[in-house]
User: Which sequence fits this backbone?
């Protein structure tokens, strides 16, 4: 069975979707079979990969989840697009026990045919994100190198711990990723040191720098590897990919 990685942070603008999209691409380019699943009603991961949102989200269908898979322009990378349809978002966000089990069954089915399934979640710790956490095997947390990073991260960790207990250990910590890393700023080094001292080995060695290529690529419907393959952002996500593969 493949690994189901939930990319989550309750704050917006921290590189969550950027990480979900570009880590998916890096893993696929390394030869892994990868599926990117967009659970954010904003559907930014869908558009960043060059696809359009769908009318109905495949996760809430009773029929086979396989029918909702679309191909991307990158070999080995498939996508289940997000949906802006209010009914789908509401059903996912207000899942009862049966709906939660349906989402998990769907994801387990996907993990049988893909080595990695990556979930891009909305910027919140609401029901939609918790539904994704309940169905995942690992959680990856991108955090921006800024003053409030630790405060938000501590709150998020508490939510994740509750899910770990409720799922009998199905969910584990995949890692914490420092994003928008500017080595010229003293604050960056302070946040880096504090996060690593507090969380230790679950913090990735790789960091994602501030890079204009990472900001521009989604507007072209491309990953950073397609848009600027020699950029610092592309190198950073290649390094992260190698770390994720080593944690298998």
Assistant:
């Amino acid at each position: 069975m493949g690994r189901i990685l939930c990319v989550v942070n309750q704050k917006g603008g921290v590189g969550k979707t950027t990480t979900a999209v570009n880590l998916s691409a890096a893993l696929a380019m390394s030869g892994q079979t990868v599926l990117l699943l967009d659970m954010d009603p904003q559907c930014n991961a869908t558009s960043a990969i060059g696809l359009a949102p769908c009318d109905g989200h495949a996760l809430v269908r009773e029929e086979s989840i396989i029918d909702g898979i679309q191909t991307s322009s990158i070999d080995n990378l498939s996508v289940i697009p997000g949906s802006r349809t209010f009914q789908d978002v509401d059903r996912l966000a207000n899942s009862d026990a049966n709906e939660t089990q349906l989402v998990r069954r769907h994801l387990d089915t996907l993990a049988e045919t893909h080595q990695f399934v990556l979930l891009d979640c909305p910027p919140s710790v609401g029901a939609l994100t918790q539904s994704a956490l309940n169905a995942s095997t690992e959680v990856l947390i991108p955090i921006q190198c800024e003053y409030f990073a630790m405060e938000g991260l501590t709150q998020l960790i508490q939510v994740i711990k509750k899910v770990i207990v409720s799922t009998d250990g199905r969910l584990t910590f995949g890692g914490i990723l420092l994003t928008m890393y500017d080595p010229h700023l003293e604050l960056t080094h302070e946040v880096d040191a504090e996060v690593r001292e507090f969380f230790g080995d679950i913090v990735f060695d790789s960091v994602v720098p501030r890079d204009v290529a990472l900001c521009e690529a989604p507007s072209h419907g491309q990953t950073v590897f397609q848009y600027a393959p020699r950029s610092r952002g592309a190198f950073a996500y290649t390094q992260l990919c190698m770390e994720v593969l080593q944690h298998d």
The longest strand covers residues 172-181. The chain has ten helices and eight strands. The mean pLDDT is 91.
